[in-house]
Amino acid sequence: MRKYLRLFLIMGLLIGLTPVPISAFAQETLSVPQGTLSVQTNILQKTVKSIEDLINAKDEDAESLTFRIQALKQVIELSISEAKELKVKILTLEDVKRPLDKLNEKELAWRQNQIEKLNAAIEYYENRRKLLTEQDPITLEWIKSEAQIFKEWRENNFLPLADSIIDFLLIQQEQRAIKTTQERLKKITRDLQSLEKKGVRNLKPLFNLLTKAETAINESVELNKQAVVLFWDKQNLGITTSTATSTEPIEPIPPPLVRDLVRDSLNKIREAYQIFIEMSSLVRKLFILR
């Protein structure tokens, strides 16, 4: 009976140690530095060349002009979709495990400010689209001018906004990945302690691995905290810069490495899961296959 109970406990530990895949939001985090709006961003990257072609266009035959009008329309439509997608992501934060009412006052105020900026961006794009449909006549020079205006506005206004929102979403997503891993660590710890109380031997290697996993998770937490600090430093810097009245030239400041810190933090989570896998294999070696 005791042997059966011991085997049951070991199997329970084995089940507890079986690593679950890092959740979808955590896996998405690794690819977000290339763009949270992956579909829209990839398409827009392809249309950037269209804008450049519009700006540098030389011929003005009817067929070429029609093509360029359609190209500009496409760029505008894709930009509207991109802005709306970001708005959806930030509006639906309440649908994830960290509900909206748990955001602190500063986060809520920042979120509302970003929504207002996104609304303004969507309105700007829609106005450009309306202007394109109402302009008469449309000449090659006018198309080139519109493309240049659009390109500069997007680079100076929308892209910084999108970067800030993506950084915020990354931090939130990665915090949930950390929480999931911490819960798994607690479960494994309880299982090992239970086995120890039952008098099961040869648990020291498992406890050693557990300590390594805990260290990796703690390092992940610290990296995420650093990302949070850098994120708000970036926001404060943006406010300070926008209200500055000095006419002296200001050297560009390298952007904070929020996404790099989030990626490093998630890599620590992956490291912890690899240790969980190693523990599972060790359980099999020490107890199940012996």
Short key terms for the protein model shown above:
290 residues; 0% strand; mainly alpha; 8 helices
Structure description:
80% of the residues lie in helices and 0% in strands. It has eight helices and no strands. α1 runs antiparallel to α8 (258-288) and α3 (38-55) packs antiparallel against α4 (62-91). The longest helix is centred in the middle third of the chain and has 58 residues, at 140-197. The two termini are 19 Å apart. Residues 18-37 and 239-247 have low confidence and may be disordered.
SSE layout and pairings?
Elements: H1 2-17, H2 24-31, H3 38-55, H4 62-91, H5 105-134, H6 140-197, H7 204-243, H8 258-288
Task: State the gist of this model.
The protein has 290 residues and is mainly alpha-helical. The protein is 80% helix and 0% strand.
**Approximate helicity band:** over 70%
The portion of residues forming beta strands comes to under 5%
The whole-angstrom Rg is 26 Å
The SS-based structural class is mainly alpha
The total strand number stands at 0
Unreliable stretches (pLDDT < 50, length at least 5) are 18-37, 239-247
Mean pLDDT, nearest integer? 78
The H/E string reads: HHHHHHHH
Helix count, DSSP H or I runs of 4 or more residues? 8
Q: Give the biggest sheet.
A: none
User: Span between N and C termini?
Assistant: 19 Å
Globular, elongated, flat, extended or rod-shaped: what is the shape?
Answer: elongated
